[in-house]
Every structure is written in C-alpha cells, then in structure tokens.
C-alpha cells in the first residue's frame, strides 16, 4: 500500500501484513472500513481531478505525467515532495495517516488518487462531474507486478507462492478485488462521465502521444519542447532514479528494495517470465468470459 508519511514516523510503527475486509463485496484494507462513511460522503469539488487505477497498472507513472503537464513541464514543482504526498490517496488509512484528511485539507485545484472500483467511488465525484483519468494494464503483467509488490511491501497481505497469488488474483481475492470487474466497470463508465481511459501498453508504445491525450483532456496546451521535456522526465529510467517518484523515501522496513524494487521492470510482456502455458491459457479464457461484449481488449505484448 502506498504511504504518505514521514520516514521517521513510520520507523516507529510496528510493521505487519494486512488482512482484508469485505466492503460492499470488494476486499479492501480493514482501516478503510472504519472511514467508510466519511469517505462515501467525501465532498468532491468541480475542479478535482481523480486518477484512478487498479493497483500496479501505472498509477505513479500517470501521477507524474499529470503533475508535469499541470506545471507546464516544471520538474522543480514535481520535486517538492514524494508523489504520495503530492497527490492524496483518498481511501488510504495508515496509522497516523489519512488520505481522506489530506485531501480535505488540500486547496483547489486538487489531484487525487484512488484504486476504488467504479461502484465504490464517492457519489460527489459524479455529482460534481469531475474529470477522471483511468489507466488499465493487461491482466497478466498487472498480476505479476502486483505479486512482486506484495512481496516487497511488508504491509500487503502475504502473497504466498506465485501460483497461489495468481489464483487469488483471478478469483478477485486480493486488495481492491477483481481486476476484470475493475477494468470493465471503468470502461463502461467512460461512456457516461468525463473519463479519459488510457492503457499502460499504449503509454509504453508512444509516450508522447498518450501525454498529448492527457494534456488535451486537461485543457493544457503543450509546446513541442515542453512535451519532449515531460516525455524525458517520465521515462521508466528517469522515474526509477527519481526519489520523489520511486518510493525510495518509504523506509525499507515497509517497502523492501532488497526483495523487489517499486520501479521494478516497467515493461510489457514480463508475464512470460512467470506464467506457465496453462496459467496463461486459463487467464485468457477467464478474460474472454469476463470482458465478453464490452469491446475492451488488451495487448499483452508490443
Ligand atoms: P512493474 O512491477 O511491472 O515494473 P503503480 O504505480 O500503479 O503501483 O504501478 C507500478 C508499475 O508501473 C510497476 O510495474 C512500475 O515499474 C511501472 N512504472 C512506473 N513508472 C513507470 C514508467 N515511467 N514507465 C513504465 N512503467 C512504469
């Protein structure tokens, strides 16, 4: 789970792996249940921008892109604090931290982050007609990335072996629930709301093209040199070495880089290093069933 605290505060807190609770049919972290009523009653403002993803779909990448677009390509503005402090994660509750309180205290215009599936989004985001940017990533790479994140983040639930984790992922028995429901729910919502729906694979294929879509959606004009600056700033190599974007400011007792890096590989197709042929065929089959009739398709290689 992403953290928004000061390193020295977190170091004083005993670290333990989380258990999940059911909130309206979706497995979420226990503390989120405690803030459910205020979260559901969250007062979105018309100029809020919501960044929404299934975990490990490229949230941080989009966050940094949005910050760069909004600042007119100014890396200094993006260097003011770690990404998780700059953009509150609304359902995050972690000891002394509250993404909800941080969001409430933030002056407008706000950019906020959530991993909630579409049916659990606080209704005021719809009432206020807020802009939302969603990034989806193919289920195979998403599952692999999520597995390694569970291994390295000592407060995620215990992932077990890859085989066990993949079973849980396909069954939707992981934090934030079913990947299939998530990507499909948001895909269908985009026809009724101000939602820009992006794909991780498209961003890998042509980052400048996808950044242009973000800028257009946010009504920001980008000159060619600024666009180029944003592309350079948000490449995997540059984000991996950027301490304000790579989560290295989180203590290793929480996110252990010796186990796996937050900026791990950043590729399309790493799933081939993990899936057996039968696991791959099984996910393809479930994917075809779960996304049937939606028109939503994913590329698993470029
Ligand atoms: P991998 O584990 O496959 O490397 P999130 O921000 O939603 O938690 O997603 C993290 C995933 O996005 C990780 O995937 C990470 O490496 C990848 N990622 C982050 N920044 C990226 C970038 N600039 N380009 C490509 N992938 C990036």
Supply the CATH class. Answer: Alpha Beta
Describe the strand arrangement of the main beta sheet, using strand numbers.
Answer: 6-3-7-8
Helix and strand composition category: alpha/beta
User: How many structurally independent domains?
Assistant: 1
Q: What's the alpha carbon Rg, rounded to whole Å?
A: 18 Å
How many beta-strand runs? 8
Identify the quaternary structure here: single chain
Classified in CATH, the superfamily is P-loop containing nucleotide triphosphate hydrolases
Uncertain parts: 1-5
- N-to-C SSE string, H for helix and E for strand: HEEHHEHHHEEHEHEHHHEHHHHH
Number of helices: 16
* Named CATH topology: Rossmann fold
Which ligands, by name, code or SMILES, are bound? adenosine-3'-5'-diphosphate
Could you explain the architecture of this structure?
- The protein has 302 residues and is an alpha/beta fold.
- It has a single domain (3-290), classed as Rossmann fold (3-Layer(aba) Sandwich), CATH 3.40.50.
- The protein is 42% helix and 11% strand.
- It has 16 helices and 8 strands.
- It has helices at residues 7-11, 30-34, 36-40, 59-70, 75-78, 83-86, 99-105, 124-127, 139-152, 162-171, 179-189, 200-205, 207-217, 224-233, 236-240, 277-291, and strands spanning 20-23, 26-29, 49-53, 93-94, 97-98, 111-114, 131-136, 195-199.
- It has a 4-stranded parallel sheet with strand order 6-3-7-8, with helices on both faces. The protein has a two-stranded antiparallel ribbon with strand order 1-2.
- A hairpin with a 2-residue loop joins strand 1 and strand 2 (26-29).
- Helix 13 (207-217) crosses helix 14 (224-233).
- The radius of gyration is 18 Å and the shape is globular.
- 43% of the residues are buried.
- Residues 1-5 have low confidence and may be disordered.
- Adenosine-3'-5'-diphosphate (A3P) is lined by residues 53, 55-61, 141, 145, 148, 234-236, 239, 263-266, 270.
